[in-house]
Amino acid sequence: MFRFFDRKSYSPREKVMFRFLRRSDLFHDLTDDELATFIPHLHPRRYLQNEAIFFRGDPSQALYIIKSGEVKLNLDVEDSFEELITLTRGDTFGDNAILEGARRNFNAIAASEVCELWVLAQVNILEIFEEEPQIKAKMALAFAAYYDRYVRHIVKAYRNNFGFFNLGEAYLSAKREKNKN
What is the CATH number of the domain that holds 74? Predict the structure, then answer.
């Protein structure tokens, strides 16, 4: 179904797209042939400033790659929002769409006047993973490495701001959630 592995050459436009995708940790270690399996499933989408792309708690139904513009990731805390980061061209977000049944951990809002994204639906990702397990393995390793760095930084921030939040409760909640399933 997704077999492009017999192909030996790609158009200049495809090669540009491969370089663009490799800016993301998730796609960085994939070969041109492996990246080619995603190209037909990338759909352009435009958002206007302050338009919500997704909200915390939503099902993770797509992975997003910023073609142009900026996206702000934030957390809603009581009646306000705490900004996490502003992402720009080439950045990916919604990475947990590679995990079946995942939900969004934060809000994503278009920050620039116009924000153009490439959208990769989770259903397509999971189909590719089913057909091409080596792609799934590479992307799962990249995802795990990203989350390892992320958790290290959370722990470092916690140590530097002791008492800001109850880190022990976060681990206990994760264990409870796992035991429910």
Answer: 2.60.120.10
DSSP one-letter code for 181: -
Total domains, the chain? 1
Alpha-carbon torsion angle 54, 56, 58, 62, nearest 10? 50
The contacts of residue 114 (CB under 8 Å, 6+ apart) are 46, 47, 48, 49, 68, 69
Q: How many Cβ atoms sit within 10 Å of the Cβ of residue 89?
A: 13
- Is 6 within a domain? no
Domain containing residue 62? 12-180
Q: What is the pLDDT of residues 110-150, one digit of tens each?
A: 999 999 999 999 999 999 999 999 999 999 999 999 888 88
Q: Kindly list the distances between the CA atom of residue 113 and the CA atoms of 7, 47, 49, 50, 69, in Å, as whole numbers in the listed order.
A: 39, 8, 5, 8, 8
Residue 96, CA distances (Å) to 48, 58, 140, 162, 179 in order: 24, 12, 10, 28, 20
Element (H, E) at 21: helix 12-21
Per the domain annotation, does 1 fall within a domain?
no
* 145 part of a folded domain: yes
Phi-psi map region of 90: left, alpha, beta (phi>0 left; psi -120 to 50 alpha): left
Contact 91, 72 (CB under 8 A): no
